[in-house]
Amino acid sequence: MVDGTDLFGDGVNVASRIEASAFPGGISITDGVYHQIAKRTGTDFVDGGERVLKNIDRPVRVWHWQPRYNGFVEEERPRPADGAIAKTAVRITAAPSTAPQQLDLAELVVSSLEDLLTEQRWLDASRVGSASAALDGSAIRPYDYTVKIGIHGAGPFRVNAKFLHTNVTPVMWSRAFDLPESYHFDVVELVAAEIGSLVQDKVLLAASEMIAKKPQSSWSADENFLYGRMLDSKHMLPEAEVFFLRATELDPGMIYAQASYAIALTYSFAQTGDFEHLRRADEIVRIALRIDNNDALSHYAAALVHLLSRDYDGARSHYGKARDLAPSDLQIRADHAEMLHYLGDLEQADAEIGECFRLAKYPPVWFWVIRGIIRLHQGRFGSAIEDFENIPWRSWRTLILLAAAYALHGDEVRRRQYQTEALSLQPALGPELVRNTFPYRDQDALSKLLCAFVGTA
């Protein structure tokens, strides 16, 4: 289906999935494409076997082409001449097994994990053929890692995940997951999602600790990005903004740095109401989309910009593209739920954030903010208060939501308390700032939030 400059459909989804398996500088194609072009091009493709792809209900045979292809062992990637590191590599391996049930389960876990990590554009995630073929330490770089997946039992199964630098270094993190004999694909996806989340946390922690030992003036674009990404993961997006900016200055073509910088700018606008932040975010988003119009994070950033600019159709379009490109990204799905509530579609918004909570083993704290504001507009004031009170750190936005919820709940004392706390964090706080930074399509919906200032009397 063609919608303006966007393409949607099963073929696009399959292409997006198999793109991740292509070698650097190479091409991956499906079996159907291979049989149409192989004899015409005279090019040697290598059979990559059948792959189980996320959200695709049939296995897909994949063929690979690579310049100077030499089996499935990837050549060591050259280091950039200026000493900057390339993308952080995560190699995923499965322990060998002769049991068909274990092989099938390992394939599902590895495939799901590879898809999840590949959606994070700052990671270079790929599988290797077996545990013995994993990175052996001879070509390892400071920011490269290996994840080993082992399957034990014949049902129920135990999935062991180990995170380490190389095959010979000590295990940095290990976790076991139990699956029943009659497991379903969505259960495997939940396990893969938890492993993927933990891997990302460990990569950022380990990399940022090494980076912090160097003078900031010598940091490469990649190092600035990784450090900013670590701060972002700790809910310190304002502090991360400067590192994303430096990354874009050092490497204007680093699309994930451009998109992250734009997202940080939208957050700054939401906190300050300064439209210059939103204007700058729009500029950066346009740069990112020119670099690659099929980047999920860039479309997510564009969706935020369009929503805050009250271009609701544009926001819907970019959220749709972002979700198609990265269907497993719960951050995108949760913010999509927030957009739905701004548009007044509370039922769908509630279902979407509920699914995010179901899929996230350890939901980030801002998920509670989104669920709370949806519940507030559903009239479930007690439940909204529970969600907002669950936030360990509170910006003025969270505090004003608490004040509004308590006002609607009939607690004037708490309303005044949280309004005062919010004012202490943002002296410019008032109804106008709330109107500018909470982009409701229906202004009547905004009246619930304005109760934070005047109560319900």
3D structure, described in words:
The chain is of the alpha+beta class and 457 residues long. Helix content is 55%, strand content 12%. The protein has 18 helices and 10 strands. The strands form 3 sheets. It has a 5-stranded mixed beta sheet, with helices on one face. A 3-stranded antiparallel beta sheet has the order 3-5-4. Strands 1-2 form a two-stranded antiparallel ribbon. A hairpin with a 4-residue loop joins strand 8 and strand 9 (157-164). The N and C termini lie far apart (52 Å).
Number of helices: 18
| Rg | 24 Å
The N- and C-terminal alpha carbons lie at a distance of: 52 Å
What string gives the helices and strands in order?
A: EEHEHEEEHEEEEHHHHHHHHHHHHHHH
Helicity range: 55-70%
| Strand-pairing-aware structural class | alpha+beta
Give the percentage of residues in beta strands: 5-15%
Q: Given the C-alpha coordinates, what overall shape results?
A: globular
pLDDT average, as an integer?
A: 84
Q: Low-confidence parts lasting 5 or more residues at pLDDT below 50?
A: 68-85, 130-139
For the largest beta-sheet, the strand count, sense and barrel status come to: 5 strands, mixed
What is the spatial order of strands in the main beta sheet? Answer: 7-6-8-9-10
Number of DSSP E strands: 10
